[in-house]
UniProtKB/TrEMBL annotation:
Pfam families: Sulfatase. The lineage of its organism: Bacteria, Pseudomonadati, Pseudomonadota, Gammaproteobacteria, Pseudomonadales. Keywords: Membrane, Transmembrane, Transmembrane helix. This is Sulfatase-like hydrolase/transferase. The chain crosses the membrane at residues 32-52, 58-77, 106-128, 135-157. It comes from Azorhizophilus paspali (Azotobacter paspali). InterPro entries: Alkaline_phosphatase_core_sf, PEA_transferase, Sulfatase_N.
Amino acid sequence: MAIFLKELLLGLYLLIQHDYYRERLMALQGGVPLVLFAGMFAVLLVALWLTAHIRSAPVRYLFALLFFASTLFFDVYTQVSAEYLTYGTFVSLIYSGGFIDEALYQYWASILVCAAKALPLLFGIALAPRRRLPLPGIALVAAPLCALLLLTGILFVRGGVGARGLPAMYTPLAYLNLFAYEAASSTVGPREAVSLPRHGQAIGNDIVLIIDESVSGNYLDINVEHGVRTNLGQSPPGATLYNYGYAAAIANCSADTNVTLRYGGTRSDYLRINSTMPSIWQYARKAGLRTVYIDAQRTGGRLQNLMSKSERKEIDEFVQFDGTPVRDRDMAAAQKLIELLGNDTAELIYLNKIGAHFPVHDKYPDDFMIYRPALPRGQYADISDTGERDGFGGQAEDWGRYRNAYRNTLLWNVGEFFARLFARARLDNAVLIYTSDHGQDLHERGNPGLDTHCGGDPVVEEGLVPLVVIQGHGLHGLDWQGELASNRNRSSHYNIFPTLLQLMGYDLTALQAVYGKPLSLHTEDEFTFNTRFNARLGEKANWKFIDLNEVVKPVLQ
Ligand SMILES: [Zn+2]
């Protein structure tokens, strides 16, 4: 019996964690992925067993402690958050500052339980081996190192993904290797303070960035004949409206676009900039602006679009509409914006609207059901956005109804939103920039599928967004008109962050060197969007050019 003590202890450890491994096994459902997974699992397990037979006691103790600490980290995170520890989360944990103190204090009970569960692993490796394996000592020491290197390599190629369900004691150690690589190549690091010089004043009053949700540029009357009425067709009282026509989005997913709009990532350097450079809030505060974030999509203080708790602290006023039905949230946002524009305080206001994300069945009131036949009503009234597609068939007829419901939604959440804003807001001392996070695939070509955006092989319309600037008459803002004709239908989201910095009075030459061109200059933009945004480590971003000749002109049916 004693001769199998190590095997028993290691087996016991795996048995205690069986839920985690079984879950992954169930999700794989056979085939090649299952074979590859099983092969990798076996390699890691054999390496673990060899580790337990290392002859030098100090070296064996060292590995025992490393694996013990690693699995403890993994298990505590899983238990506390009820989520799988991804590489991205691992990196944020490292940078979330002093989290170890806080975790020790808050989660000591979980840590004790997890430590007790990991003891069989610790002793399974550390105890003196009762048998001598017929292998050279150096091979035994090399085994865990090679296994770890192999796992690290696989994760590297796959951008950090692929360790789920594999023996957990390797995962944080492999993440640590990836992290060391990224730190050495400066794509991760502590966030920098603002260092750009300012030589001008920020414009007189508010700077407002309005990010709509899933509003495709080719459904709006400012860009196409028979488009949905937006009320952006002419300048509102007290201000001049500049329509930049079609613009390219940053990416075809909400979070990717929003995090880049908040941090200013460029096409060539967005991973580094988004994770290590100052946020738009930091720049705004440095320029003397109060910072306001209005999130019409989420409630209860929940953060989204890759906003962290530390970024949240840079926001002076954080607004969500907890008691307001989804249908009325954009109107509540308009009301809030009217108040902020009239409060005589210079502010940066960043608004995430409800817009027209799936489901669009119930995002507009009955009075706005102008386009028919639309999707059936009444089942999605409380849902801001979802990945579920229950009750939506995805046939040509369903998509016809979808497009009509989408138009009705735009009529309300875009047209009525701006009608109310323009009727009551003080616009003379503000600059507003309006765009959407990404466009939509509304399956006008009859292509199959249920999704509207965020896929890996998108249609051009998924990256096609509106871009409008509204500047009040009472301030010395930027010269938009000068390059309007050359920038129209040729600019992108990537030009917005530098525009915001220029409005805040940051030095034009200095800001361009880091963030590229603002809309006040000839943008010479590439007019592409990123279809593989999470391209860290061994992966490369994928840029899709928007050929405007390819863009569908929606027809009414
Ligand atoms: Zn979105």
